[in-house]
Design a protein that fits this description.
The complex is a heterodimer of chains A (about 400) and B (about 400). By secondary structure, chain A is mostly helical. Helices cover about 60% and strands about 0% of the residues of chain A. Chain A has 15 helices and no strands. The chains are: A mainly alpha (about 400), B alpha+beta (about 400). At the A-B interface, helix 7, helix 10 and helix 14 of A face helix 5, helix 6, helix 9 and helix 17 of B.
Amino acid sequence: MADFLIGLGLPGWLAWSIAALVSAVLLLNVIAGGALVFIWAERKIAARIQDRLGPTRTGGRFGWLQSLADGIKLLAKEDLMPEGADGLLFRLAPYVSFCASFCAFIALPFAFDVVGQRLNVGVFFVVAVLGLEVFGVILAGYASASKWSLFGAMREAAQVVSYEVPLGMCVVVPVMLAGTMDLVTIGEKQAGWMSNWYLFHDPFTFVIFWVYVTCAVASVNRAPFDLAEAESELVAGFHTEYSGLRWSFFFMAEYGSMFLVSALAAVLFLGGWNGPVPVAQLVGLSEGTGDSAAYFVRLLGLANLITKATLGVLLMMWIRWTLPRLRIDQVMTTCLKYCTPIAAVMFAGAMFWQLLLPGGLLPGWSRPAGEIREGWLEGPGGLPTPLPAAAASSESSGLATRSPR
Amino acid sequence: MSNLIDDDPRIIEFDVRTDEMLVNMGPQHPSTHGVLRLVLRTDGEIVSETEPHIGYLHRCAEKIGENVSPRQWIPYTDRLDYLAAMNMNLGWALTVEKLMRHEVGEKARHLRVLIAELNRVASHLVGMGAYGLDLGTFSPFLYAFREREKILDLFEEACGARLTYSYLTVGGATADLPPGWLQKCEAFLDQFEPIIKEYHALLTTNAIFVKRTAGIGVLSRDMAIDYGCSGPVLRGSGVDQDMRRDGESIYTGMYDGYAFEVAVQKDGRYPRDHTYPSVPKEAVLGDCWHRFFVRMLEVVQSMDLIRQAIDRYAACREPLGEPLKLAEKLPVGDAYLETEAPKGQMGFYIIGNGTSIPWRVRARSSSFSNLSVTHELCRGCLIADVPAIVGSLDIVMGEIDR
């Protein structure tokens, strides 16, 4: 898109700024729109699980406008700040949380080359930036001048920082298999049939996927790990004192993070935007060519990824409305005594598998991994080059040459 | 207070102790079951002292009872344990009947068993669902309320009210059951019985639930007796006492001919008249899990009793009989009677002086005694255990503050 704007005669800095702005606005809508849909879905799913109807009237049928109505209500509410609160930090906290959740979306590929900013350290970036969300929560808890908020913040700090460790170990396994931290390449390498997904790469990756699921649920503070806002113990935890729009920013950040970790799981383990059956490739379409057929294939991939990520979010909702909450020491035990050792052993196992059985048990079924390990640095798709891919204007990527089989 | 922490071996982290903080849990807190206020002295997540503050719901019920006739006080007993209003009505009615040496007819007796046990199921359903809520799972609460709604529908049909019934009264009940009621009640039991398995799956045997409750808040047998605990809290500690079997004859006579086994662990096992999940090995007798489990067993037990009562009630051919007159004169003398309400032993005391208005009325609530053990149980636990322990005592503030 920037290239296109430069072609129109705009100066480079303006063209890049506009391109970046367009990507940002698109991603912002992913979060805001996603939050609307997911909050509505959560209400309906919770209702159905609990033998209720949930919202039925707002918007005509199924209460599909309920979250928008709630949003308007939140906008109209008075913004309260407790006496004795640290005004600046209190106001800042929701935005820190939201920005962390939002920024991580920048490196998340939604389909082949449909990514805000393709980074050669995409995995690292996403995990690191997502970890920043905890700062918002700690600030909120600290600045609220409420003991319950402080408890919530302390728990969040302890929990999220601990779960970063096993989460990082889980994330590193697909990185090792693919030989790159670039999320687009990792997704690309799982193209083809479902058996190419890293989930089915070897027994160790299969196990580590479930460790990832546990850690991901814990790191985004969903039940049964929602200790930072445990309503039966801490009233509402870190956001006890928040109301109105600021509170809704926390809420959006939570749903954004849920979608993000689910999408990350999809890219790392579940084949990314590649469906279980490579329909497009079977009919001879390729996503890397740059013609209109390629756009269609990317759209298909987009639908694939969003479906997978949505399934992940729905799984989290299902868990939330079924299980009781763990206690803080049990949460830490789960992390340090179970998740971390299991992740470490599985990481070692996957490493040896990769070393000893690089082609898998059935060589004909698995694609040899690591084939473009040398190529990704200087290939034509030159990953470090900035490609604002929401426009998807690069006519081809270095990976177009990969063999489908 | 600091000595307490140093001496208590349950407090593991006293060597890394930091500044203590006083935290108010309640009276506006989601998990204090009404307007209970707990002042926690905390060191990080560890609670060193819990002090319950009560009185936010006091409404001079006993004093009112000394200004109205016993039948007029029935609606006030509804508001003591509002989740088991029928049992409150029954307790008061029996006490007055004891003072007046009045005996109700056979039909009224079976009707009272039927209604009281049905309300016990309803009360335990709330206790069970709310306990799930205390532990952070929302759905069982709504399942429990779904079933409770059906019981409330039955009560509404019988007496017109859904919460404060004033149905069982001195000398019987205000009205007979409407035609077709027994069939509806049986239909409810048939529908509810298989569902109990699901509650066991969602709560009793759920791994996280067991982790949160087993070995937490252990109330020893002696301590339970010393503090005057009663009901499921007492039986959860392994004390074999149930007023329906061990009470005074005017109350136990009501259950004459009914077969039921007291839900208590004897010789390391619970009564096996039905299939229950087995006790997890982490659970210690007297902990939150056992208190919860006793309640679950009592639901099944009460349903058995309801079925028996339905048969006996249906076999009675005589009319129900009228309750005593509103301004019936009370004899000179006093009477005290404890009945087995869902939350524990509910005692009423009455002194009559020859007029229709009692000279003294007193209510002894089980929740009050049960609540008094919180500071013992919560010492050295984590903040998250406080709702788990208080919830397992299943208190109702209306009964404590009266």
